[in-house]
Amino acid sequence: MKPVVLGPTVDEQTRCIHYRTPLDIIAIRFACCGQYYPCHLCHDQTADHPSRPWPAGAGGPAVLCGVCWTELTVAEYRGAERCPACTAGFNPRCARHHSIYFG
Length: 103
Hints:
This protein is α+β, with helices and mostly antiparallel strands. The chain is built from three helices and four strands. It has one domain (26-101). Helices cover 16% and strands 11% of the residues. A hairpin with a 6-residue loop joins strand 1 and strand 2 (36-37). It is globular and about 35 Å long. 31% of the residues are buried.
């Protein structure tokens, strides 16, 4: 069963109204609620609580590839330019927001 991605998505690959380039294909599972959202803005606009980054060393699934729906840990995602399962490219500009998502 595919994980549920909340927020204003615009397609089946988890792109949203805020980020929708061909490389914007991930969703983040937020540490505060355990729910997937396409981005921090989607979470902030639709969740009823503030976001919280994953603590350092967190090992569970935290990132979802929107192409193949593989779940990745923070370490797997941060060390990859592409999905290790389907080789879809990730947006390198997402690194600008790592401090919001990952402690």
